[in-house]
Amino acid sequence: MSVLAQSTGTPFFRWDWVTSHTDDIWAATVEHLQLTGLAVGSGLVVAIGLAVVSRRWRPLYGPLTAASGLLYTIPSLAAFALLVPLFGFTRITATIALASYTLLILLRNTVAGLDAVPAEVREAAVGMGYTPVRQFFEVELPLALPVIVAGVRIATVTVVGLVTVTALIGMGGLGAFILNGIRRSIAFPTEIIVGTVASVLLAAILDLILLGVERSLTPWAARR
Amino acid sequence: MNELGFWERLGDWLTDSATWSGDGGLLQLTLDHIWVSVLATAVAVAIAAPPALWLAHRRRGRFAATALANIGRAVPSFGIIVIAAVVFIRAGGSARFWPLVIALVALAIPPIFTNAYTAVTEVDRATVEAALGMGHTEREVLRHVELPLATPLILEGVRLAFIQVIATATLGAVVSSGGGLGRPIVDGFATYRSGGDVKLVGGALMVALLTIVADRAFAGAERLFVPDGVRRLFPDVGEPLDVSTV
Lengths: 224, 246
Hints:
B: 12 helices, elongated
């Protein structure tokens, strides 16, 4: 036991570090949430815009999903690297790169959700004298919301994990702990584990919250 | 600080033979990157596919399949790669190759397992019953009926995993000298103000190109592996990945 302690130096996990750094962990969690919110929020706005465009001009849907598929394929680290010369080590760089990952999921779900709105409902809205804009925001979008929120759940959980990589461009939220932990002269596993586990917990909590939102939007769906 | 503009310096860097050749050259890094990614994906398929197919055939473990997909999405790959490296270093090993492979295998298992599972459970029940009625054994049903019909979706899962593995392998450069094409990116960040910006963008372009080529190549290979009759049932094999179902 003592030999093991000598050969490995520091212990693998130190609770006292966690308890003495609660403020730092909280601040990093808040930053993590902000970066996630910015990315998913702007991704959603763009995706809804693209969904409207591809429903208006159907032939564009294929190329638009292919383009967002391409963005999804590009590694996050490469996306950050390509954006840094343009926007520097800023939140703009982080937001654009992270939002580009959400586009494929959000675009598909938004289009699927809007497509699923029954034609009779649309006709009823037209008959009641809704303008196209009001019809979209007050009839079609609310009915499509459950499917859109299902996409937002997947996008959010994915982005929470990817935010850790923004540590390499000077942000990172909880990912900063992971990077700091490896950059110390002797790697400090406690910090790395705290960053990773907290990120997983954050993703799980957000997933549950969004699941609640999804259910509350579909009160007619059967409960299991 | 530099007399030449960014694009000229990028052009110079990309056309300099020293950039490409030798031990840390882009060619070597690209080969390293492909090797580590193919190995990790292959090991993950070997581990994840057999239990997924059998469990799906027996209609068991649906909860496990969903949970694995969710956990796989939530775990930050950056953290897993760093933890694997630290565990190896503390055990007295090197962080260069194996910890990266192990971390990548762990990350590739969820999408492969979940897609293979879903693929088999989505095979039409009537088809399976017809096969059983014709006297096929359970094993034959899985091998000759469910597996061919499930192939397109299974391969989509493998492709998704492969692309994620290539993307994630770049992060290996943060913790060690491994990580293939992540190397110029990480070095580029470190020396950004002193001319590293060229390395950064050049490396990023290479990784982006590699993932896109790998994705298209895999999509092409999918068409070859899917039996003709089955392909007619799945006209969009090789199209952009349906990430929302995985």
